[in-house]
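Request: When convenient, would you put together a sequence paired with its structure tokens?
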Amino acid sequence: MSVDLAHIRQVMAEADCLYNDAEVEAAIGRVAEAINGELAESNPVVFCVMNGGLIFAGKLLPKLNFPLELSYLHATRYRNETTGGELFWKAKPEISFIDRDVLIIDDILDEGHTLSAIIDFCRHAGARKVHTAVLIDKEHNRKASPDLKADYVGLSCIDRYIFGYGMDYKGYWRNAPGIYAVKGL
């Protein structure tokens, strides 16, 4: 598969910055404060959802001032595309969380099919309680279920195709230092 790097660069050059680096960092700090206030005594197992949750988790975890166990899982519907398809598990959790609180860290709550499947997986596998933290909650009425909400949300954003801070555009720009919306999408 050939990648048109000129197109990838053009997407960034034309993108609208919805939240700059300082705004995102402040939001991560607020999420950390809330999690510290609620989960500090629960001995949680924390799962970073790869690849999108990697940057958010990497920025968030050092701000959590309590002992926790960390692992990762990898489930996706996008597979470097711009629209979601069937859920695909690349790596299921390898650490036991039976009768433990679980905190799932992910980049975005869009429609929420992936996050819902992960929550259900953890509940059915014996988690005492499942908590979710997302950097971005996208505002629209297409959630997987009407009651689907993350427990901890950094920022909300309009219903556009976004990238940066872990979220990608066709596999690129996860490293963008802010939250950007693709022009026209």
Summary: The radius of gyration is 16 Å. The mean pLDDT is 91. The beta strands are 16-20, 45-49, 69-76, 88-91, 101-109, 129-138, 152-157, 162-163, 178-181.
